[in-house]
Description:
The model is unreliable at about 80-105 and about 365-374 (pLDDT under 50). Helix content is about 35%, strand content about 20%. The radius of gyration is 21 Å and the shape is elongated. It contains 12 helices and 14 strands. Strands 4, 5, 8, 9, 10, 11, 12, 13 and 14 form a 9-stranded mixed β-sheet that branches. A 3-stranded mixed β-sheet has the order 1-2-3. A hairpin with a 2-residue loop joins β8 and β9 (about 185-190). With about 375 residues, the chain is an alpha/beta fold. Bound molecules: adenosine-5'-triphosphate (ATP) and magnesium ion (MG). Adenosine-5'-triphosphate (ATP) binds near residues 285 and 331.
Amino acid sequence: MAVSKEHILAALEGVPSPKGVPLPSTGVLSDVVASDGKIFFSITVDAAEVKDWEPVRKRAEEVVRALPGVQSALVALTAERKAGAASARPPQGARGTPVRGAPRGESLQGVPGVAAIIAVASGKGGVGKSTTAVNLALGLSALGLKVGILDADIYGPSLPKLLAIRERPQTLGGTRLKPITRYGLTVMSIGFLIDEETAMIWRGPMVISALTQMLREVEWGTLDVMVVDMPPGTGDAQLTMAQQVPLKGAVIVSTPQDLALIDARRGVSMFKRVNVPVLGIVENMSYFLCPRCGTRSDIFGHGGARHEAERLAVPFLGEVPLDMAIREKSDAGLPVVATEPDGPHARIYREIAAKVRDQISGAARAAPKIVIEA
Ligand SMILES: Nc1ncnc2c1ncn2[C@@H]1O[C@H](COP(=O)(O)OP(=O)(O)OP(=O)(O)O)[C@@H](O)[C@H]1O
Ligand SMILES: [Mg+2]
């Protein structure tokens, strides 16, 4: 029998706040989302009280998980910064609104055991960011690195599909999650825990705390690189994410069309604003190679991203063709770098991966360039 919201709230009556008040009466609970035995809600408290509330969050999660009919429960703790409480002026959002959360560098801790975290981002959706993230991660792995991949596209998680992962992560010792291993990658996605419809109704603060939990409460183990598949766009939500994740650098994916390039430019400037180095731009769906006659067509006017990278003084990482094999393999959970390692596409992704690796290891740092902002 499906568990109802009322059942959950009744169970939470037995969970006291730090001051001893039953949780449902404290006014800190978000709406409880119960879908198909998967439960999600958040607790929003003052930033200064987060430490006191963490045991309450854990307890709430345990209590809900123990209810009959519950398959999984995710309780997120969200810190609300009090007006005027910020010690430094927080960065401004796209429309001049302050972005909630700590300014970068002040309280951003790394993830223990993870040497470098890099974001794969795009200014606009559907340009092949997730496909690139997966194949880049596999390319880095093929170069001998220990690689993890985190799906931070919380509204539209892709990794369950792109890596054909159906199983749910196990819980270790009550709260920590064991990531899934696929093709040698350590993988975590919110899509492993909740349904896509549930994700759609999340609000900003919930998303951030779910992301923080995926970084901190997952047993990532020792990794040379963690690749983060970011949600598309350059709005406040993406900016906040870029601030919340301790990023070593960002890879921007774009298609060659003018419109996509304008968005890619926004992506580059977003990361620059939060002081995350841009590792470079990948041109995806760059050209079309006819599988029958081998003729190459530059359907979208290929090369735009290379010019854009030059203009923005960021490295150009490579061109990935528009190819049916990439689409079919990707959407079937059989990414080309893993399943056709000797093919031409795998080679392209490995070359991109090598450039990324060199940059994050500092081995081949490009000579400083003068940045010309348009
Ligand atoms: N180089 C390519 N050649 C052919 N198809 C591609 C290529 N790259 C991506 N695709 C296909 O394009 C579609 C969108 O790709 P993907 O999901 O990676 O994009 P995305 O930018 O992550 O999208 P979203 O914004 O929805 O997260 C998928 O069907 C994918 O298989
Ligand atoms: Mg995606």
